[in-house]
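FAQ: What does a ligand-bound record look like?

Like this one, built around magnesium ion:
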Amino acid sequence: MIKTDTIDQIAYELYQAEREAYEINKFVDQYPELDLAIAYEIQDKLINIKCQKENTVISGRKLGLTSKAKQEMMGVHEPSYGVLLDNMKIDEDAVISIKPFIHAKIEPEIAFVFKKDIKGPFVSIADVLEATDYVTPAMEIIDSRYKNFNFTLIDVIADNSSSSRYILGSKRYKVEEVDLELMGCVFKKNGEIFATSAAGSIMGNPARAIAWMANKLIARGQHIKAGEVVLSGALTGAEAIAKGDQFTVSFDGIGSLKVSFTE
Ligand code: OOG
Ligand code: MG
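The answer part, i.e. the structure of the complex:
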């Protein structure tokens, strides 16, 4: 049995590592008794700490590791999820300083914003679509607190699925206007194509990933709430960010989104 003290301590170490921007060791080696359920408890604790210390609130959720590209890149074979906070949101076209980051990466995503609560355990793709207010292009900045961005599924869940910042497009699109399987995506770095993909790379349909998460959340007494945003997971591998870089993601039919980075 793992002690409550240990859960608190791991959450606090993760919080400190992010705040001071340093890497830490994975926890599974030191605590072999950690499992997925405990990892999500640590994540909840970490979110509580961040909401209190940073005076912010939950703005939504994120899925991670929902595409083959990302699972293969990270050596993990199951999706994860995490929480988005209001102070992680960055505006479209922003110039972002890399100073607060440890070793950040960026990835293209499709964001869903909800007009209704979604409660498991029997959520279907149709339920997710019905509850969606709109979709919009997004990018996520991830910044694992672990050394060399290296982790197990348990570690990454404790670390709130590497979440750091998110950027949403300003235009809103109805789900009926988009093809959530075939919608193409072109991800560019400094004007050149870095990767291409389609919405179906996310578990066949990003709404399936969101249904999967809703059905998992209920076991922990949680659900997606009206007004919340959900990032459905990267459509391509993530790319490391350096100062001076500019990234653009363009989606068939829902436009594009740009960010650049500075010292
Ligand atoms: C975990 C988070 C992955 C995504 O969209 O796949 C993620 C990681 O790779 O660090 O956000
Ligand atoms: Mg992501």
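Follow-up question: can I read anything off the structure? Yes, for example: The chain has one domain: 4-262.
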